[in-house]
């Protein structure tokens, strides 16, 4: 039962001990199956299910305040309806300050549109499941992350195994110049680290894919990643050189065994010439790549305008989302919005302008209407406000944080119903501006235009870390699939089931990283902290991952692969047992023959004594 806003709270007591699950979408049949699975697996827990229907695509972003007020810790996003807009909402949820501990699960109709998983992962949705009759992971995976102490095991058989696979971790390309690429990643790369990335963005430039980390940042980050880097191009392709060096080493090793062999001496000399030729060719190709890249950047047709002005909106109600029908990223300046802000938000965003909606009154909790045992919130009722108030104390804290961080953004305070002078006296911040107006995107846009006109398009609030006035940057739209690069590294899988695995690798993999592998089947892996009571036990330097991104075909292939492992293991055990039986038979036959021979000898000696 839903009201005209599509908001429904379906069962359970609303308290802090509840396990709250929210579904955003319109597939009520599948949602019913999900609820049934949760109730079956966790019947003893106080489950609370909520549902937000999706109407027009332009209204999807308006759901964010309702999601915040709902306080669910597990959120399912159904991509069957208005997928791009649902993903934008998912990106907002993942960035929102008050929702950091929320587990967001993307739901796909099938794997026919695999780019949806790619895009979902790039926006920080680190669990993506295909809607099917197989519901083993639908409750297990989010519960393992959100409620690890009460999460149950799936009881699928775990195969002990060891095989190598190439893992791919997504990296977001923000912009590029003719000298470097600016990326955002969850990996903590040290300076000077050499990276090999795969990306379709520079196909026309025939880049080597080799880069070196030259600068690292923990601020000015637009995505849900925790780190940003400038990685310089390394146009040298070492593949041919390394191959020639391997051949040379083999020839030298052979010559060392037979130092007087003239043929081997000639072979070493020939291999040395091949190494030099490969090196000269790589240098020539590197110069050509550099020239092609610079020419390509000059004529880059899809260049986005640089958004050097960053605006941070702090508004608990976020009424501006309902008033503003265009996408917030359609402006010439970048916009991020949060219900509140703390040190992490202000550090990552590094805004030039902060728009703060002052919260003067706190609404009372709504009196819900009860129908047929379900709690329904009507449109006229105001959602319960949670968390700290956006009052003068909160405003003061924000101003103190930005000063401590060494930045000095303009702070625009909206919705002020008291004397403006009193606000400025209560919050002594030089760049504080006060107005009685309601916060709107239009009012912010006017100030941003004045800000940019005064500062200049090539200027920014953070000149110390910006090279914007010295170079030509080409910005990449975050919804462009070409904005994704893949960082590749090998992993060694140690244990595997249909829903989980354990692996080792030399790279440090942060928790909640999303990896993609092609072996034993194409699937995604969400790396999460190990938990007590789990079936899989980790050893030192091992990682625990949840298997997802599987369609019915892929799941069947994975199940077959694991069964074959057990079948092979069983056959090997039977073979060993059979071999042991044969050895035992032979041993017994030998012992019997020896006993018979001894008996015959004894009889012969006895007969001889009688004679």
Task: Give a quick rundown of the structure.
The protein is an alpha/beta fold and 611 residues long. Helices cover 35% and strands 24% of the residues.
Estimated radius of gyration: 32 Å
Say how many strands there are: 24
Mean pLDDT: 81
Assembly type of the chains comes to: single chain
Treating each run of at least 4 consecutive H or I residues as one helix, how many helices?
A: 13
Classify the secondary structure makeup into a structural class: alpha/beta
What ranges have pLDDT less than 50 throughout 5 or more consecutive residues? Answer: 1-15, 362-385, 457-464
Using the alpha-carbon principal axes, give the shape.
globular
Helix content: 25-40%
Q: Give the termini separation.
A: 111 Å
Largest sheet, strands/sense/barrel? 11 strands, antiparallel
Strand content: 15-25%
Task: Note down, in words, how this protein is organized.
The chain is built from 13 helices and 24 strands. It has 611 residues and is of the alpha/beta class. The strands form 4 sheets. Strands 7, 8, 9, 10, 11, 19, 20, 21, 22, 23 and 24 form an 11-stranded antiparallel β-sheet that branches. Strands 1-3-2-4-5-6 form a 6-stranded mixed β-sheet, with helices on both faces. Strands 13-12-14-17-18 form a 5-stranded parallel β-sheet, covered by helices on one side. Strand 7 (159-176) and strand 8 form a beta hairpin. The longest helix is centred in the last third of the chain and has 59 residues, at 552-610. It starts with 6 loop residues before the first strand and ends with a helix.
């Amino acid at each position: 039962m839903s009201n005209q806003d599509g908001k429904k709270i379906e069962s359970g007591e609303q308290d802090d001990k509840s396990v709250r699950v929210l579904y955003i979408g319109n597939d009520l049949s599948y949602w019913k199956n999900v609820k049934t699975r949760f109730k079956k697996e966790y019947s003893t827990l106080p489950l609370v299910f909520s549902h937000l229907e999706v109407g027009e695509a332009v209204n999807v972003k308006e759901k964010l305040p309702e999601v915040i007020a709902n306080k669910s810790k597990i959120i399912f996003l159904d991509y069957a309806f208005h997928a791009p807009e649902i993903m934008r909402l998912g990106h907002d949820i993942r960035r929102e300050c008050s929702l950091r501990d929320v587990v967001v699960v993307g739901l796909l109709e099938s794997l026919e549109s695999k780019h949806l998983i790619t895009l979902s992962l790039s926006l920080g949705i680190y669990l993506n499941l295909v809607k099917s009759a197989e519901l083993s992971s639908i409750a297990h995976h989010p519960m393992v992350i959100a409620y690890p102490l009460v999460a149950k095991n799936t009881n699928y058989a775990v195969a002990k195994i060891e095989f190598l696979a190439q893992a791919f971790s997504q990296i977001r390309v923000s912009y590029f110049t003719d000298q470097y690429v600016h990326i955002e990643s969850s990996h903590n790369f040290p300076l000077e680290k050499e990276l090999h990335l795969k990306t379709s963005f520079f196909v026309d430039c025939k880049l080597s894919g080799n880069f070196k980390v030259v600068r690292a940042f923990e601020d000015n980050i637009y995505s849900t990643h925790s780190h940003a880097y400038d990685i310089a191009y390394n146009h040298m392709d070492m593949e041919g050189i390394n191959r020639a060096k391997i051949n040379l080493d083999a020839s030298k090793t052979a010559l060392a065994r037979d130092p007087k062999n003239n043929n081997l001496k000639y072979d070493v000399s020939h291999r040395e010439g091949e190494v030099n030729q490969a090196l000269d060719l790589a240098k020539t190709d590197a110069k050509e790549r550099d020239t092609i890249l610079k020419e390509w950047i000059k004529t880059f047709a899809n260049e986005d305008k640089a958004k050097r002005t960053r605006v941070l909106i702090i508004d608990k109600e976020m009424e501006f989302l309902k008033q503003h029908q265009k996408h917030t990223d359609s402006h010439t300046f970048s916009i991020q919005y949060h219900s509140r802000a703390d040190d992490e938000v202000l550090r990552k965003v590094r805004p030039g302008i902060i728009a703060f909606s002052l919260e003067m009154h706190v609404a009372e909790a709504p009196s819900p209407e009860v129908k047929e045992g379900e709690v329904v919130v009507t449109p006229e009722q105001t959602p319960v406000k949670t968390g700290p108030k956006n009052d003068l104390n909160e405003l003061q804290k924000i101003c103190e944080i930005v000063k401590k961080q060494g930045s000095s953004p303009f702070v625009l305070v909206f919705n002020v119903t008291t004397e403006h002078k009193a606000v400025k006296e209560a919050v002594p911040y030089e760049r504080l501006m006060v107005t009685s107006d309601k916060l709107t995107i239009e009012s912010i846009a006017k100030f941003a235009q004045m800000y940019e006109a005064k500062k200049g398009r090539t200027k920014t609030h953070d000149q110390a870390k910006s090279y914007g006035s010295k170079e030509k940057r080409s910005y990449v739209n975050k919804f462009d699939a070409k904005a994704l690069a893949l960082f590749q590294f090998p992993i060694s899988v140690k244990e595997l089931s249909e829903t989980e695995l354990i692996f080792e690798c030399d790279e440090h993999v942060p928790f909640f990283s999303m990896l993609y592998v092609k072996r034993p089947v194409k699937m995604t892996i969400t790396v999460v902290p190990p938990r007590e009571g789990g079936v899989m036990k980790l050893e030192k330097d091992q990682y625990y991952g949840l298997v997802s991104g599987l369609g019915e075909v892929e799941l069947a292939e994975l199940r077959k692969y694991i069964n074959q492992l057990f079948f092979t293991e069983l056959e090997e055990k039977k073979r060993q047992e059979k071999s042991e039986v044969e050895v035992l038979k032979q041993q017994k036959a030998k012992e019997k023959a020896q006993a018979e021979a001894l008996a015959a000898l004894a009889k012969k000696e006895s007969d001889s004594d009688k004679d």
